[in-house]
């Protein structure tokens, strides 16, 4: 028993759709810092390459403005403030496209894995976040080991790519010293942009390993025990005892509605010991007689009692009552095969209503019931 209890507490079951949805509401979705870093660096470097000419021209303007100041203006505070304002204005205008690209990248990069999630629970204060013991557990956990290995791998991969880029571009870097200032600035920005693109591509290797790990790790944390599955099923589908009680109440309400229709019946056909079927014929509502109440045993007895109290004719016809009960649902017309038999019953009932005095008409002895509708019990 102890082993069975322990096994039921192990998180061996895959998370249900409800568990995944609840986790997403709480902000528990897979996130990859490496994927975000790679996307951010790639977008920033591509933006730098695309805006290199624009940025270089403004940098040249700023440098010319500040390197060509006359000597007497250097000691004029007001003039120097004007130069500073003009330089800042040009600098902000020059780097604005790059800043805009970085802002968009910073917003969009984190949602590449896990989607967009807004959760107030992530910013709620939790004591375990500042607990030294919890901090030590996190430091020496398997996740921390994985993060350490990723950091080492990232440094090694990026360093190898950086060395390779420097060796590949060393001739162009050395030639910058012989170029004019304008050309050197533009070429430098191009070199920096393409180097950044190559470095961000190197991070693809780290992200390709980290993304599957984050998905697996998040899925593992959301796994459920068998007891949690049972509890969730009870919460979503309802507890068995509650559902049973609801079904019982629904049956009782349906029976009350059915019993309220019995006084409106034209006739109640019975098998005295088991079956009772109440029929109604209304040409305005249906083309054939239809069942407004039916039941067996206790319900059949209740139908007969209400029929007696309401002066509804009761006719004992065991084969016919069984045939109608098994072939026809509530508020459903009787099948065509029973038309003749039911017509004989209704004719007899109408004769009873017309002849209140004298000799009562005799009910039919033989009902033409097809074999397919016959029931022995």
TL;DR?
The protein is 64% helix and 5% strand. The chain has helices at residues 2-9, 17-25, 33-50, 52-67, 71-74, 77-108, 132-139, 142-175, 181-221, 226-237, 240-261, 298-309, 318-327, 339-354; strands at residues 267-270, 275-280, 290-296, 314-316. The chain crosses the membrane at residues 35-56, 91-118, 148-168, 188-213.
List the helices and strands and how they pair.
Elements: H1 2-9, H2 17-25, H3 33-50, H4 52-67, H5 71-74, H6 77-108, H7 132-139, H8 142-175, H9 181-221, H10 226-237, H11 240-261, E1 267-270, E2 275-280, E3 290-296, H12 298-309, E4 314-316, H13 318-327, H14 339-354
Parallel strand pairs: 1-4
Antiparallel strand pairs: 1-2, 2-3
Helix pairs in contact: 3-6, 3-9, 4-6, 4-9, 8-9
Describe the protein:
It is a single chain. This protein is mainly alpha-helical and 377 residues long. It folds into 2 domains: 206 residues, no CATH class; 113 residues, secretion proteins EscU (name from scop), CATH 3.40.1690.10. It is built from 14 helices and 4 strands. A 4-stranded mixed sheet has the order 3-2-1-4, sandwiched between helices. Belongs to the type III secretion exporter family. This is Flagellar biosynthetic protein FlhB. It is found in: Cell membrane.
